[in-house]
Predict the 3D structure of the following.
Amino acid sequence: MRIVTIGDVGVLDGMVHVGDEAMFHEATVQLRARGATITGVSSNPAETAERYGIDAVPAIGFHPATTGGRLGQRERRARVLSAIDGGAGHLPQDDPAWQLIEAVREADGVLVAGGGNMASLWPMHVYERNTLGLIARRFGRPLVVSGQTIGPVLDGEDRELVTELLDAAALVGLREGASLELVRSLGVDAAKTVGTVDDASFLAADAAPPALGSAGPDAPYLAVSLSAHVGDADRGEFAAAVARLLDRVAGEAGLEVVFLAHWASLDPTEERGDSLLHRAVLDRLTVPARVEPTTDSPAAARFARGAALHLTSRYHPAVFAVAGGVPTVGLAVDDYTTIKLTGALGNFGQSSVVSAAQLLSGEAEEVALTTWAGRDGVRTAWAGSLDETRAASSAWWDRVAAALRA
């Protein structure tokens, strides 16, 4: 069984996005365990092929820098679909879309994995996934959409394109209640829409946490993973408020502060992406702190699960941490991150999500301290539900494989 799988993957300019890679990584692990061979769709096919030991092809390509925006995206989609229907002249022979078209033609099924979230904030992802789904339908290949956040902003044409994609799918997995409600409001068949934990929740979960720092693997640490995106907040004020929170919480809890960036350079001597905000916080801290290098998704997952407490405005650090029973404080900076973080924590019975306004006012410090004080209860509740949650996740992947074989 050969499955074409798309995620928002491919290291470019030495920058890796840990969370997007994580969902694709786990999809390859789970599908291989069920007898599949993977062809990945990537923004850097050679890098992705080497990283995962798979075949890989380029995406169709709907980036506004190359298509010229909405009109160009719409026209490219029409040309690609017309080419499949016999209008080969609509695409040059060297157009990268042909590689993806041929990969789907030769495949047994198509999986839209997590990453490249489908919302009006990123229409290029909506166009890419819609077009891939329609290619699968043209060739009669089963389609599954897994691990998705949909919206919350989904307007006009984007709404129509996402609905068309999901209608074409045999199975749709949605990772928080808000996305499930939105998709069902679109009229998508409720029988095939399933609420799931994030696809990467149990990535590398059978491996022990890494040994971090000179104090050894048992030294307790407060893990921090912040997004470069701070919403409408002033970046300097945001960094100062995070530093105040960490000084107080780490000081009272007796934890070392350790940063790991989820969108960062693979070169540990460079500070780019999320690392720039980390540096702004580090320069304001008075408690002991250091940086853990960004490498790959399994290492980031082990790092999150090995923490005593986690503070994050990134989604996947929260996913990894709560799936490992780590008390977690999610720092939401807009409606989109509120939905994602609330969903990630809620899937494992946690609820400590604070807003940027609460951070700046100092209220988040009390939430973090309360979360730390309740750590034994968090761990107990997690242990009591873990077997059931892992079994449900495994059952989801069984359903995905079965749908792709159909």
